[in-house]
Write a structure and sequence with these properties.
Chain A is mostly helical. Chain A has nine helices and no strands. The first copy, chain A, has a domain of about 150 residues: Tetracycline Repressor, domain 2 (Orthogonal Bundle). At the C-D interface, α6, α7, α8 and α9 of C face α7, α8 and α9 of D. Chain B binds a DNA duplex through α3. Chains A, B, C, D: Pfam families: TetR_C_46, TetR_N.
DNA sequence: CATGAATGAGAGTTCATTCAT
DNA sequence: CATGAATGAACTCTCATTCAT
């Protein structure tokens, strides 16, 4: 007989429903254009209850960012096994990243677009997540350099820039993939992996990086035919 | 004795002042949080005059995007000479890009962050610019492939992904550089050029791309010592 | 000790208070000159509450028209008994009409003056009421013609013009009576009844229409002494 | 080569052009919705010039009312010859009235609708005109009564009411005729003349007032066949 | 616990009106 | 004379937020 409006749910559950609704609305409309009315309605509760549990619009937005940032980093962390070679680690991380962002486009919109343009407080929340990922990538680069028998003490700023560029490329690619029908997470990961590992120069010379044995069901996108 | 509030200026001049103020406020606060009052005050005029000349908040924002997008593409176009080799073209383009974005951080914020999240109309304006740059990069990739004696018919979707990743990386890097004190445009360009041209793999093996004879006043950032 | 500002009233009651205030302000100032601020203040509530319940200035105005039009037609309908002779029906209708308009001058101003000059939407609302009254009068004329043994098929356009003239005279007379101190509803009704039923010609010849036994407390206004 | 924008016209001419434009705009939009910008543009002059000549929006509106009221009363006055019988005088007056209002619908809208709802000042202007017409009608009634050998001292209030009703009927009929395609001034005049002179009662008995020899090209509308 | 009732503050927008040239 | 430049004031409407029940 339609949706049953369940009453008297435990607080923790209600809070999650509110956050679900908030992420969807914030992701679609943006922070400022989102209205508490709409969020409360989508969550199926009254507005004062939202305030009772989450305090204010800012706090609600912060809670969204925190929850979604944790979920994304957890997804990437789970996808990577540190006992594997570094290139495999990078591949697994990218795949986990693009998979998660494509499964939760509103959440990604909140983290990537909305949070960065509304006040230092929100940016700080996102940066906590971002730094964890950048740190992971930075460490990969350092380890890779060491394995290549090269001086492990790469200039810090240089490594930071490289990691930043890689993460930034991934973020932009994720937004583009979400907005472009037909682009799979695996394709995005392959494109960026090729780009990052081999560089345009090597790609031109026919030496793309190839994910070996990463599941046969769909070969990574390659430059050469 | 301080700022002289000049009155009765010709329309064209006043319009530019308004756009200057609008870009700064939009860049700082974001489209929705920016108020027409604040913009008018910063421009040194009354609010009705802003409406008389620019019609509405949306039109004002659109005018900002158009002006700044044109300025950025013009800067890049001017910086590149097509008779030079492709790697040099990419380098010059990157340098012009990072130089311009670092000189006009608010404008870059408007184009990169604000414009992308407020309605299809604004996105379309930015995309016109973005596509010009992506087209430039795409053509560089195709030419590079041809010069490397490889099949010039790279898969379209693949090239689009690569260009997107490169432009996305550049955009993120620009935002990061603006937010990180002490990072010069030249350093950003060098980091991305290395990343793009050699790839992480090659970088690890000590084969960075090096901008030859690009002015001695400041050596390009290198990975190796 | 004066007006008690009751708070927390049920929605239906508040809405009527708002409509009361709106009719008064619209009637005094006119649609455009009336401000929502003033209406809200007179209603004893804040402006947002007016918008919450009535949506917009247009909707508020439409609601006023609808309520007052319904009240007026109801008053006329209740005052007339169709089993009586047609002249008596006309008299009763006129008396009910002038009584109602004199008791609710602002409402009459809204219906007669304000609503007719602000957009087709409002005019349509008023016309629905007007047509009901014009139809009533038209039918009276047709029945009267039939009873006078005359061809019942009066030219339609002619009857329409007569009904329009009669209703128009009544409307103008109502406005004039409201603006002229000392004119009672009964006097207005008598004047128009004489005019309509006997015509100036008959009046001149000393043959006014006389409401028989319509209560002795106040004889109808007569032309002759 | 299109409209030539003549410059340096004498003040009196310019003023008339402004009034022409103002009457049209006020008639279409209403007093409040009309903008000085639009009026100035339609008049083909700059806004400050309008203020230089006509002072303010209120003064401009008052000037419109005065001019159009004078034009209307002049038209009626010219149409009537006092040496003719009173019924003929009424007929001629009605015909002149309906002819003028149908030729200048915007002016009539200004006088009939707009002026009555925007402040005492405007109403006073219109009433000056209205009273002249009412006085004319009143005098007709008095003369008619005297000719019918009846007591010439009709109760003043009664005569005023009759005149008001007649003028009100005429006004409503004029508005209705302007809004109803196919209704000529002559038809409106005939309808009202029948109504006024004979009354519904007499009309029912087949005794309409008939304008004798008032031009054969179009017989007056009659109730009987 | 949960909610209908209510609001202070501020947004974008428009307009009659006036200087300075 | 005539006008482009400029504004103070007011408007409709929205929203995050809080009581009282």
């Amino acid at each position: 007989m339609g949706v049953v409006k369940s009453k008297r749910m435990p607080r923790a559950v209600r809070e999650q429903q509110m956050l679900d609704a908030a992420v969807e609305i914030f992701g679609q409309r943006g922070y400022m254009a989102a209205s508490m009315d709409e969020i409360a309605e989508l969550a199926g509760v009254s507005k004062p209850l939202v305030y009772l549990y989450l305090n204010s619009k800012e706090d609600l937005f912060t809670a969204c960012i925190r929850r979604e940032a944790a979920a994304l980093t957890e997804a990437v962390r789970t996808g990577v096994r540190t006992e594997l070679p570094v290139d495999r680690q990078l591949w697994d991380g990218l795949l986990a990243f693009f998979t998660h962002t494509s499964l939760h486009p509103h959440a990604w919109s909140v983290l990537h677009l909305q949070a960065r343009i509304h006040g230092e407080a929100f940016v700080a929340e996102v940066n906590a997540m971002r730094e964890e990922i950048v740190a992971f990538v930075t460490q990969l680069i350092v380890v890779a350099a060491r394995e290549a028998h090269r001086d492990p003490d790469l200039p810090e700023r240089e490594v930071a820039g490289l990691a930043e560029a890689l993460v930034g490329a991934a973020e932009s690619l994720a937004a583009w993939a979400n907005a472009t029908p037909g682009v799979t997470a695996r394709q995005s990961a392959a494109t960026l992996m090729n780009f990052a590992w081999a560089g345009l120069g090597n790609l031109m010379e026919g030496r793309p990086w190839i994910p070996e044995a990463v599941g046969a069901e769909s070969a990574p996108v390659q430059v050469s035919g």
